[in-house]
Amino acid sequence: MAKKKHYLSEFSVNLFTSNWLLIPADQVTSGGEMRPEEKVIADNSHIYLICRRPALRMDAGTFEYQDGIASGDLVYSINGAEHRAPFHIRFPLLDDAKRAALSPYPHREIRSYNADDQIVRYLPASALSISEGMHISRPELANLEVLYVGQAFAGGNRSAFERLQSHSTLQKILAEVAYESPESEIFVATFQYEPYRVMTMFDGRAKEVIADERDMGRFYSILDKPLKKSQQVSLAEAALIRYFEPRYNTIYKTKFPSNKHKVLASCYELDFSGLTVEINTDELAFRLHSERVKPSMHHISNIELLGKSDRAGFFFFTDNAGGVRQSVPTIG
After folding, report:
1. Which of 310, 236, 283, 292 is nearest to 20 (CA)?
2. CA 72/CA 293 separation, integer angstroms
């Protein structure tokens, strides 16, 4: 079915991230305390991703601690092949700590102990690798495979991490990954989305289109009926699931968009013809990916909301010859 322009202007909802956190899943499920600046982000997050990357441990044979300096090798495996990353960091004995040593096998932490042999401080291997920027020079440590996308938004009642402490899907993923992929570790990444923007596209080359007050009326209607925060979060969740097609998601994975989805009702009512959802991880130099999406620090999910209609929407333009072309790849 050939596409053609019906209106001079078309509109798209644009959602984009600002702040984000990356926390090992074991710290999420243990209910540990966050630093104040981290808690602010956690309490205001809207979307969370459950991700997988290689698990790290410390080699007891190379570990040394002297004069407040810890050194040795971090070890991780990919498809059975062992990789090593040397480290040399300050780990002072604070708060009445008397000694430092590795945690028991598989040696995933450096710990300090007081005179009663109680743990005072600990530093996970995963946190050490991130703070030392090892993932920047080792792509395999920067790649986070997206296994599940969910909503962290709970009307301000509970943060994503509080909800995840008893999340059945997270528990299922932890159990299955431990069995199927013992070389891997699970992380939870939460993202804060900014209020949506309305993107407008005017096609000046389009002929015989509606360009009078009926066209402008659509724009004023969008301004007069803003999307609720809960609607914005639901749109972001659905678009990201459709984009990454994570293993543990089911709804929205293959049949989004559809006029049967309630999450899109407001978009259809306001005559949005596009949905653009971005997710960005370049602040910490990590790359999200899945079985269908290549690793990148910036992903854009472009959703064409018109489906099989002959109407050319936001992602289409009229070329010099008068034909209608798609401007960017879309899902829909």
Report:
1. 283
2. 35
Q: Cβ of 323: how many Cβ atoms within 10 Å?
A: 12
Burial class (CB in 10 A: 0-12, 13-18, 19+), 233: buried
Mean pLDDT computed over every residue of the chain: 91
Tens digit of each residue's pLDDT (9 = 90 or more) over 258-300: 888 899 999 999 999 999 999 999 998 999 999 999 999 999 9
How many angstroms separate the CA atoms of 138 and 174, rounded? 24
Look up residue 165 and give its two tokens: 């402490």
Do 268 and 304 form a contact (C-beta atoms < 8 A)? Answer: no
Tokens representing residue 133 in the block:
């920027």
- Tokens at residue 245, please? 């097609």
Phi and psi at residue 205, in whole multiples of 5°? -90, -15
Measured in residues, the chain has a length of: 332
